[in-house]
Fold Transcription antitermination protein RfaH.
Amino acid sequence: MSAEQTSSAEQTPPDWFLLQSKPRQAERAQRNLEQQGYQVYLPCITVERVRRRRRYQVQEPLFPNYLFIRLQRWVDNWYPLRSTRGVARLVAFGAEPLAVDDQLIEAIAARAEALAQPSALEPGQRVEILDGPFAGLSAIFKASQGERRVQLLIELLHREVTATLPRDQVRLSA
């Protein structure tokens, strides 16, 4: 590569690439790559698990066994990636690794952050049902049931009835 090509390669911004880790070693790969000075992104979400009738929350990768690494095509040394503990391979199509668009990484980060936000609903708050057979009715938020469902008190035929609905069908009343 000539000096002119090298200087133009150094001026191009680094791109994100997809890296596959060995099974259940994404965090290990992330840690080892960061120690080598690479910029790595492992999108994680908080998931509620039940074990022995107890609920607890745990951080899990959004894409199991995959993480993103930022590399500059002709400047960064790609050879240490293959021998890094936890790393299986750089995902490529044919012989060429394909760069991931920065906007996609930003969208993934925004989605992971939105999933990590706690529920804005508090017990006793009035909510409006947006979809389904109860669409348009007003209800009282009772409790969350996991990440995707809510328990509501709905007044039907002059009685309060408990109903469980998907969280995306409910919004806080104005």
Observations:
- Residues 15-116 form a domain with the Alpha-Beta Plaits fold (CATH 3.30.70.940).
- The helical segments are 3-11, 26-35, 79-83, 102-116.
